Structure formats: structure tokens, C-alpha cells
Amino acid sequence: MSWRRVAKSAQAFIAHGLLFGFTLLVLLKLNHVVTYSWWTIFSPLWLFHTTVARGRFSLPAPSVPHDRHVCGHLAMLLLQHRYWFPLKYSFAYIWRASMVHIQYPYNLMMN
After folding, report:
1. Which long-range contacts (CB under 8 A, 24 or more apart) does 4-10 make?
2. DSSP readout, 16-76?
3. How far apart are the C-alpha atoms of 14 and 7, rounded to whole Å?
4. Whole-model pTM?
5. Closest to 41 in 3D by CA, of 28, 31, 51, 50
6. Which Pfam families does the record match to this protein (predicted)?
7. pLDDT tens across 36-75, in order?
8. If you ran DSSP here, which 8-state letter would residue 111 be given?
């Protein structure tokens, strides 16, 4: 067993303990056993989220597979770069037509 597995197990234990603590505090608050503020009641839930986020988003990025073809995002980027001018002109025409359609009723109201 490595220290990394021990740390992951401890992190999971802490996360579940915080979630259980939040549940217990909510039950005690709703039964009027404790008079803590709601900030104190919800603090284990926020700590649970930070613990889980620390475990989820601190992982290194996966390596790029070398046996596959170009991903779809790169292909779209290359196509967009290759056909940039026709797309620009077509979207400019659509944008201009929509602006004329939107501004036309307001021009009638101003006169």
C-alpha cells in the first residue's frame, strides 16, 4: 500500500465524515436541539465540496494518445481558418439583416 492510496482513503473518509456531520447538524437544528447559526450548520457541506473538488480537479491532465487521428476541435479550427472569409461574410450579412429588422420598429416610433 502506497502513501498515495492512504491519502485518497483519508480524503474519502474526511469527505464522508463532513457530509455526515452536515446531516447530523441539520437534523439537530430542525429538532431545536442546537441553536447554532445556519452558517455554522452549512460549513461542513462547504468543506465537503472543497474536499471533493480538491480530489477531482488536482489530477494531472491525461496524456495525448499517439495512436489516434486529429481530434474534432482541431479539425474544426483548421476548417474555420481555411474558410474564414466566406463565414465572415455570411455572418455579417445575417447580423446586418437582423439589426435592420430590430431597429426598424424603433425608427418608426421616434418619428
Report:
1. 8/55
2. HHHHHHHHHHHHHHHTTS----HHHHHHHHHHHHHHHHHHHHTSPPPPPPSSS---HHHHH
3. 10
4. 0.48
5. 28
6. Tmemb_185A (PF10269)
7. 999 999 999 999 888 887 766 555 555 665 655 555 555 5
8. -
* Nearest-angstrom CA–CA distance, 24 and 28: 6
* Domain locations in the chain as residue ranges: 1-60, 68-110
Closest CA to 54 of 15, 6, 21: 15
**Burial classification of residue 11, based on how many CB atoms lie within 10 Å of its CB (0-12 exposed, 13-18 middle, 19 or more buried):** middle
Amino acid at 8: K
**Identity of the amino acid at 3:** W
